[in-house]
Amino acid sequence: MQILVFSDSHNDIAPMEAKVREIEPDLILHLGDYEKDAKALARLFPHIPLRLVRGNCDLGSESPNLENFVVAKRCIHMTHGHHFHVKSSYAALIDMGHSAKTDILLFGHTHIPHYEQLGAMHVLNPGSARESCALILIQDGGISCQHLSLSVYADL
């Protein structure tokens, strides 16, 4: 299972579109800011399931602040992160992840790529979708996470 994770696209879908075409993931996740970008991506790739949560800039959105679900027998929690005050500390977010016994804890908001493994829990921020995203691979052997560059202008 290949999962492509984006956050904080802020009205720029070109880098995300290019990476989806390159990777052809099994699932796309968008962690908020801007929900309309995620919905545009869903229209471009209707054959790829897409899940999203709202961010602090998604005013009037009816999407959830926190989403938890199971994929390939792994529990995933995703949030934008602003309700957990991730710009000052990851502690509240990580406590929630541990309490929920999540396998993969995803957040955005900071625009800074981050990855750490805390015991069995993978904590991942893909960074700003103008510059980076994350790829999660779930296989029989476990979970692997990596950040990918998104610059569509890298060859200029």
Total strands: the figure is 10
Q: What strand order characterises the main sheet?
A: 3-2-1-9-10
Low-confidence stretches: none
Mean pLDDT: 95
**Integer-rounded radius of gyration:** 14 Å
CATH class: Alpha Beta
Secondary structural class: alpha/beta
| SSE string | EHEHEEEHEEEEE
**Tally of discrete structural domains:** 1
Work out the helix count. 3
Largest sheet: 5 strands, mixed
CATH 4th-level superfamily: Metallo-dependent phosphatases
Please describe what this structure looks like.
The protein has 156 residues and is α/β, with parallel strands linked by helices. It has one domain: Purple Acid Phosphatase, chain A, domain 2 (4-Layer Sandwich), CATH 3.60.21. It is built from three helices and ten strands; from the N terminus they run βαβαβββαβββββ. It has helices at residues 14-23, 35-44, 91-99; strands at residues 2-6, 27-30, 50-52, 66-71, 74-79, 104-106, 114-118, 121-125, 132-139, 142-149. The strands form two sheets. Strands 3-2-1-9-10 form a five-stranded mixed sheet, with helices on one face. The protein has a five-stranded mixed sheet with strand order 4-5-6-8-7, with helices on one face. The radius of gyration is 14 Å and the shape is globular. The termini are far apart. The relative contact order is 0.20. The mean pLDDT is 95.
